[in-house]
């Protein structure tokens, strides 16, 4: 593994920091003994520099983040830090002052983000699994862009930590979950929820084929349209997402734009966003009458690197939403979701398809996804 990584350029291996050998195991007989992971470079591993996606924000922590520390306590070892955009604010992976990882499937194109470095490392086989986080699609978007697997647990907040893997079984093991196949009614959503964008035909085809496979497996599958409050959900996402960053220091033009957006959110608007988030699962269940949904993950193929960094920040924000107009639904509603690669006839690159739980728990959503991705 180390030799393979060392022979690659940073754009290929997507590490912002790399050890000569993995950290010592804190528990050689633990449940995760033998697992060597990378950690997303927005999260702390004791003694490893954290860049927060910008060379200007780099510091070296004395202790690991809680999620990382729990993995270490179970025996997992860390080999380095995977690249992410500044503060994880974009759906690409182009950190300030650091190399920009290249998409293994689409040379010259973005691997997605913000856990893009993690997706690159798993797609290239450099690590079996990579740590990441998801606050608006940040695990699922790069997994879709790079042809690998992501699972976002329901969690208790807008953002949760998890992993990018090559199999749902590995995701389940790392989260210590036992997938169960649920009884469920499935909704197929191919119209974009949060942006007026034309969805590429092969993205729709992939989602329809996954839905058809679930139908053949005995599930009732129905087409459903965007729900009436979709615009309110995206407004809630914007308020929740940006308000957390209102106190960040000056950085790039884009991070300053998000910070200023957050400073413009009133207390009443933030309270309304939290209320919308709390009631969203019930709203979706009432509007759709399903237990889970299938959607494309991306509206079109990964664009060239620089697509989201060249425009002015408001234009970039809109363009990112157009690329992934379904992802943030599961963050606002704190719903479990998985992204799996699906082969489409006539195409070399797989297409990322999202399965998201409406009434399903984490283990049930994983069990449903395993029906179509073995």
State the share of residues found in helices, binned by percent. 25-40%
**In angstroms, what is the radius of gyration?**
19 Å
List low-confidence stretches: none
Q: What series of H and E elements makes up the topology?
A: HHEEHEHEHEEHEHEHHHEHHEEH
Strand content: 15-25%
Largest sheet: 11 strands, mixed
Q: Give the averaged pLDDT, no decimals.
A: 97
* Alpha-carbon distance between the two ends: 25 Å
Major β-sheet strand ordering: 1-3-2-4-6-5-10-11-9-7-8
What count of helical segments does DSSP give? 13
Please tell me what the overall shape is: globular
Describe this structure in words.
This is amidase. Belongs to the amidase family. Keywords: Hydrolase. The chain is an alpha/beta fold. The protein has 13 helices and 11 strands. It has helices at residues 2-6, 10-13, 66-73, 116-123, 140-146, 168-174, 201-216, 230-243, 253-263, 267-288, 313-323, 328-332, 362-372; strands spanning 15-18, 36-40, 77-82, 129-134, 149-152, 160-165, 185-188, 220-223, 292-296, 337-342, 351-357. Helix 8 runs antiparallel to helix 10 (267-288). The mean pLDDT is 97.
């Amino acid at each position: 593994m180390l030799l393979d990584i060392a022979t690659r350029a940073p754009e290929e291996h997507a590490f912002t920091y790399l050890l000569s050998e993995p950290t010592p195991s804190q528990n050689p007989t633990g449940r995760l003994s033998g697992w060597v992971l990378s950690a997303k470079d927005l999260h702390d591993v004791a003694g490893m520099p954290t860049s927060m996606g910008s060379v200007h924000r780099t510091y070296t922590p004395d202790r690991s983040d809680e999620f990382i520390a729990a993995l270490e306590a179970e025996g997992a070892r860390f080999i380095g830090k995977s690249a992410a955009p500044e503060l994880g604010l974009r759906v690409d992976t182009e950190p300030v002052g650091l190399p920009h990882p290249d998409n293994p499937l689409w040379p010259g194109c973005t691997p997605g983000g913000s856990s893009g470095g993690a997706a690159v490392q798993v797609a290239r086989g450099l690590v079996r699994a990579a740590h990441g986080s998801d606050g608006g699609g940040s695990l699922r978007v790069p997994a879709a862009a790079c042809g690998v697997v992501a699972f976002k647990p329901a969690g208790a907040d807008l953002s949760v930590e998890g992993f990018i893997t090559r199999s749902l079984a590995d995701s389940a093991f790392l989260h210590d979950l036992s997938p169960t196949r649920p009884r469920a009614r499935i909704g197929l959503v191919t119209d974009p929820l949060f942006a007026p964008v034309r969805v590429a035909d092969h993205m729709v085809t992939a989602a329809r084929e996954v839905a058809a496979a679930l139908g053949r497996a005995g599930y009732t599958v129905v087409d459903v349209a965007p729900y009436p409050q979709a615009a309110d959900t995206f407004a809630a996402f914007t308020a929740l997402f940006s308000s957390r960053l209102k106190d960040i220091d000056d950085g790039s033009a884009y991070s300053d734009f998000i910070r200023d957006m957050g400073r413009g959110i009133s207390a009443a608007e933030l309270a309304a966003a939290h209320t919308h988030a709390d009631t969203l699962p019930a709203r979706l269940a009432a509007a759709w009458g399903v237990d889970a949904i299938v959607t494309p993950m991306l509206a079109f193929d990964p664009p060239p690197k620089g697509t989201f960094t060249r425009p002015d920040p408001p234009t970039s924000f809109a363009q990112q939403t157009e690329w992934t107009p379904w992802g943030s639904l599961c963050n606002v509603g704190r719903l479990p979701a998985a992204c799996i690669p699906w082969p489409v006839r006539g195409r070399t690159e797989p297409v990322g398809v999202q399965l998201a739980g409406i009434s399903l728990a984490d283990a049930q959503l994983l069990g449903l996804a395993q029906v179509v991705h073995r």
